[in-house]
Amino acid sequence: MSLNHVRPWRDIYRRKSRQIMVGNVPVGGDAPIAVQTMTNTLTTDVAATVAQVQAVAEAGADIVRVSVPDEASSKALKEIVRESPVPIVADIHFHYRRGIEAAEAGAACLRINPGNIGDEKRVKEVIKAARDHNCSIRIGVNAGSLEKHLLEKYGEPCPEAMVESGLEHIRILQDNDFHEFKISVKASDVFLSAAAYQGIAEATDAPIHLGITEAGGLVSGTIKSAIGLGNLLWMGIGDTIRVSLSADPVEEVKVGFEILKSLGLRHRGVNIISCPSCARQGFDVIKTVETLEKRLEHIKTPMSLSIIGCVVNGPGEALMTDVGFTGGGAGSGMVYLAGKASHKMSNEQMIDHIVEQVENKAAELDAAAEAAE
Asked: Is-contact 113 181, C-beta < 8 A?
């Protein structure tokens, strides 16, 4: 899919995959790449789990996964699904009954490994429950839990073993005439993940869920995910993503969107272009950007804002943004609107003024979008 015919060096051509539905969210085909996360509350604590689901949905999550480890969690899931503003994926491991219960509770998708939930009869029961309740399935292959026969065959987790595992699971579903599935082949190693995803992308037309599993804390996990997921997305691979961080799930959603925004694959909220600051800065760039990021979190309209400390790069960056501010001298700087110098503003009043300008521009863009519908 060409994203910018004027600048072909920005084009990303999405891999052609068939489309499935996860609740009311289309996945694959020409649908936008969906951003997912997972709750880390006790599923049986319905109030806490629903609150977290609502928080990540507000941050932009399209789909949320919830762990269902026991029967009590299955019962809680029904209420969580009822109160959730987004489709819920039930995370199922080992016990096939949890998969059946989750489908009955209204889960939009089941995350399973068909090979670890029992014999063929049990797998068929889970597939029947998914079909009966209009529930899709995600095949979740993980380098840390590959089947024993594959580890014996290959000697260690490797791309070939992960792809083979994924294709074996696909065959189980297809042999039961079930085709509403997506697949992931995750590893904590960026190289292993990338190679496995490239292999599975060539071997199937199923939608692909991307993730670097157990990526680490907020900073290290963000970097690892940006490298791994960013390169795969750049190659056109990926229909949904989850950034796995040892951090608040809201942060996972934010990072996921930033990765997509940086590649021009999805746009949501204000994209702030800012300099790292130096001795030339006419105001405290770092503190200003930190404040603006928080003050502008409520803006969902896709737009751009440049915050540059001096006139070396400031005017040039402002030419390409909706709103801009470039530091000058004598305690003031220049405000740019739609790429053009508009008026001066004091550093003291600058933050409130920029927020006002961004809100005005967002309202203008929203009105134009509504008029075009």
From this structure: no
Tokens of 373: 């519908």
Task: Answer whether 109's CB lies under 8 Å from 87's CB.
Answer: yes
Non-local (6+) Cβ contacts of 155 within 8 A are none
- Angle at CA of residue 284, ends 278 and 289, nearest 5°: 105
- For 66, 67, 78, 136, the CA distances from 41, given in Å and listed in that order, are 9, 9, 16, 24
Taking a C-beta distance cutoff of 8 angstroms, is the pair 144, 116 a contact?
no
**pLDDT tens-digit map of 28-43:** 999 999 999 999 999 9
Residues 19, 6: contact at Cβ < 8 Å? no
Cβ 32 vs Cβ 266: under 8 Å: yes
88-91, strands of its sheet edge to edge = 181-186, 136-142, 109-112, 88-91, 63-67, 34-38, 240-242, 209-210
pLDDT digits (tens, 9 = 90+) for 241-254: 999 999 999 999 99
Mean pLDDT of the chain: 94
42 φ/ψ sector (left φ>0, alpha ψ -120 to 50, else beta)? beta
pTM: 0.91
